[in-house]
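Chapter summary example: a protein plus aspartic acid.
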Amino acid sequence: MTTKTAIAIHGGAGTILRSQMSEAKEAQYAGALKDALLVGDKILLDKGLAIDAVEAVVRQLEDTPLFNAGKGSVFTHEGRNEMDASIMEGKSLMAGAISGVYNVKNPITLARTVMENSEHVFLSGGGAVDFAKKMGIPLESDDYFFVQYRYDQLQKARENDVIILDHTSVKNADNKKFGTVGAVALDAYGNLAAATSTGGMTNKQHGRIGDSPIIGAGTYANNKTCAVSCTGHGEYFMRAVVAYDISCLIEYKGLTLKEACTFVVHKKLAEMGGEGGLIAVDPNGNIEMLFNTEGMYRAGKASDSELIIGIYK
Ligand code: ASP
């Protein structure tokens, strides 16, 4: 039995520039990342399971309006919140995913419930919300999800007729930020798990689904190789099948976690024009947090190392 544990989390990648961030805002983000990471770290140090750690961390980030998931999710063109999430357990290769859900307080918990209490892997829209009601998953009113700053982003995106990734400054549509949240963990029993949750893109077409709920694209976990959670321009991450590709490079080509992540983020995705990043952990507790954008909200900690928090490159 391994005894080392490790956890890494992200709160989105993009054009996150020190010059555009106030000290107060930076402290808010760093504090939120640290609090969430410590929730997961404690579960792991208390000999809890990786799947419980990643769910708990993502729930906490979903409850934090700073991030584009749960409360704080961006708006669709029609002014609604449609959220996507997925979770995967590396021991059994069990997975659960939901897309286009509304009024569900913690989409990641709904994804886990699909994994554990349904015969399916992926539920969408009204069917997923009906399942949430049936299973007694907490719902919230539209008001709960309304965050003024997100609504203002939608108005700007509509005026400029652009679909933008979280925190994008519309003046410069190339200035992209992605605010999805995710977590990956290794527990003391050698189990890996990954979870990802998002509101998607501001002004997105109703019904658009990104990479976050797609097993193998935005999320993947396999005890033999790694656990991965992605953030970035979902259309590219789907086409590059990012999370599973990293696992395959380790399993079939013998690459290390670092080599596999570096190849996919800095070569494969970069050559396609896919902006974003990811967090990953392997069975030895190695952590990777890398991105090809200006920054990524991130934090990581192994049981035998110090906490690392990062925002910029
Ligand atoms: N990957 C997410 C999506 O395309 C966005 C993000 O990471 O912020 O929906």
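Key point: Residues 6-312 form a domain with the Glutamine Phosphoribosylpyrophosphate, subunit 1, domain 1 fold (CATH 3.60.20.30).
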